[in-house]
Amino acid sequence: MKRWLLPSLLLLEVIAFTAISGPRFDSLGTFIAYFQNYFRDLIAQSAPVLVLAFGMTLVIATAGIDLSVGSLVAVTACSMASFASGSGFWWTAVPAGLGVAALLGLCNGLLIARLDVPPIIATLGTMILFRGLCFALMGDLEKSPFLDVPGYEWFGQFTGAFILVAGIYIFGGLYVSHSRWWREILMLGGNRVAARYAAIPVTRRLCEVYFVMGFLAFVSSLCFTARNSSVSASSLTGLELHVIVAVVLGGTSVQGGRASIGGTFFGVLIIAVMEEGLRSATAWGDRHLPFKISHLEYLLLGALLVAGVWFRNSANTQRNSA
Amino acid sequence: MKSRLSRFLLRRLLLLFVGNLILLLLIRCWIKEGGSFRDVLARSGPDVAPVILAGLGMTGIIFTGAIDLSIASIVVLAGTVFGILVQRGCPPLVCDLACVATAWAFVSLNGWLVRRLRLPAIIITLAGLAFYRGLALILADVAIPNFAGYLAVQDEQFHAPGKMYAAWILLIVLATALLWERFAKTPRCWLALGNSAEACHLLGLRPERILQSAFLVGGIFLGVSALIYVTRVQAIEPARMALGFELQVIGAVVLGGTNIFGGEGCFVGTVLGAFFLYFVAELLIYAGVSPYFQEVIVGFILVVVIGLDCASHRPAKLLAELA
Known about the structure:
Largest sheet of chain B: 2 strands, antiparallel
Strand content of chain A: under 5%
Strand content of chain B: under 5%
Number of strands of chain A: 2
Number of strands of chain B: 2
Number of helices of chain B: 13
Number of domains of chain B: 1
Oligomer: heterodimer
Structural class of chain A: mainly alpha
Radius of gyration of chain A: 20 Å
Distance between the termini of chain A: 16 Å
Helix content of chain B: over 70%
Largest sheet of chain A: 2 strands, antiparallel
Largest interface: A-B, 48 and 49 residues
Distance between the termini of chain B: 28 Å
Helix content of chain A: over 70%
Number of helices of chain A: 13
């Protein structure tokens, strides 16, 4: 039953929100067309978070956490935005963005693995540091060189986003479920001392995980900038909360050692459907509720997180005691 | 009696103390004409009071190995209750008490949930971070017709705790807290729980109760902190107020030498840590650094100080693993 929990929750959400704010389906054609569009928008809209959540699953599996992802994506986008637009953008700004993201990701990894700073503290510090870099790069400006780059909008459309997300989740997921690397990550998350005794290069693996996170932050910033087409220093604040909630909701244990990539995928979609549903239900909310319905997002996000983790925990306890 | 402060903690306290003195000296040197050093000193107490007070509560919670990420949202919720009561024409004392009580109640609720649901505190309070801010927004929407996004508090008598008495409140609470930490049993129980829940259990202590007590006491500190925070601003904006406040507080606690996984730390460290971060920010203003670069520098200092410190622990930690 646990396996079906997240998909059925997602389905329930879609049905509930469609009933509130969806159109009237008078034929099968409108029904299919509506959900086709809905699905395309959903993937394109949530691609940045989906990409990041994959990396966050790896990070949390090592018993770490990365609070700096929002700032990392923002600083990558800001550094790309400081280049001139045009076709030269592809071989100046994009490699520079990749370099910045990978370097800063590695910087997180070195802090955590080499200097032994607890992950939550290290990334708390780098979260402030990276956000500061955004302000140092951009000031109060909002820049949008992305519009005039030929072919760049592909990342923001359904096809581009779908290919990227599917590539990461299918190939990444397959690699992960069949590789020794992944088992080593899980082991060092479960018990770091034991992992050291088992001759797993703990420092190196940790660095690799945060490096991958940096790379994914770069991919995510491509999707984000292509869709939103402009970026400012305060973009994407609070993104880390969404990513972490999605991953934890998907069944990855914050104590490390247990992770589920499929769960993460559904976790992100559940949150995305909820956000989108609340946004489209504004008119309904104004008629029926004494407050703005968009405020419910915070409440649902919190309640969903606690309920999801609690349900999973109690199911595990029952299984263990049986 | 042997001091329960380890060598590491004493070294950190010394470092912060000297650091604070150097920062003050630099501020003294760079102060522009027309600015007075005594003003800077006099202002520092009230300015840093909310962070210190919330930090004391957080320190206690972190002693036990838990954490509370939702304090900023709780401050907002307490502020919203305060603002609503002000708009409804309640007397200042009632508003103040309601503000403190709200903050205390929700921190305690966090503790109760952590205990009842047996989930990690970081999950519960991460959920609380979103939940309580939403609750504040909905509360404001429901209680104030045509809510415009902020609750204005114009009357000066409502600002008394934050603008007139902040330094005194800080001094009294701080003195009580430090004496209590020195002589009472409860903070030691928190540290014990942070070291080993199992050992606590074997000694006949009750880990769940100790955890709950940390949140109960932390709630009182946060209540006072919220009162000062809220009464220092002219308009309470539930959507934007206190964003990132929890980071400032956790930053101060960690800089003060408290182990983020619990079991080690002291209140004085948090106080010195909060002052250190505040003086760094002040110094950057006086040194004429562009406001856009200030955040980078503060973040960089935080990362470097903590990084170097952790690195100096690493050999000992690796050796301990072998034992």
